[in-house]
Specification:
The chain is of the alpha+beta class. Helices cover 39% and strands 25% of the residues. A four-stranded antiparallel beta sheet has the order 3-2-7-6, with no helix packed on it. A three-stranded mixed beta sheet has the order 1-4-5. Helix 3 packs across helix 4.
Length: 138
């Protein structure tokens, strides 16, 4: 005899609603997409924040400049981290402001940014989102 799980219908409807939300996000989003083939080996991601202008002035770039509403990072083939771009921007700024990760040069073209471990950055995103969503239902 099969027993029905408590709240099965509710959990099924909730799961189907989240599937629909992900589908809509993927189909209708405006994305800033980044990837680095070294991430799978190093575990670090790249978050560009500024570059040098032609006159040698530091100007915003990458996550600091994006007008996208979603940020995607491919950390291994077909493996993605997706998050709201404003959340990624705020988290990156907080990590810099708190001195948790230092800005570092990236390449030889004057770009600068962070290279935190992927796991640490996901945890920082989680904490930032928890602060934002505290007390609200989703």
């Amino acid at each position: 005899m099969r027993r029905e799980l408590p709240d099965f219908d509710f959990r099924l409807a909730y799961g189907q609603g989240r599937e629909k939300a992900l589908r809509e996000l993927i189909l209708s989003g405006n994305y800033e997409v980044k990837s680095d083939r070294k991430t799978i080996r190093t575990g670090n991601i790249v978050l560009e924040t500024s570059q040098l202008s032609r006159d040698g002035e530091r100007i915003p770039s990458g996550i600091e400049k994006t007008s996208a509403n979603w940020w995607g990072y491919e950390w291994a083939p077909d493996c993605w981290l997706l998050a709201p771009a404003p959340l990624v921007k705020r988290t990156t700024r907080n990590l810099i402001h708190q001195g948790i990760f230092k800005l570092r040069p990236m390449g030889d073209n004057g770009n600068e940014g962070l290279c935190p471990p992927l796991a640490d950055f996901v945890d920082a995103l989680r904490r930032e989102a928890a602060d934002e969503w505290q007390g609200r239902r989703w």
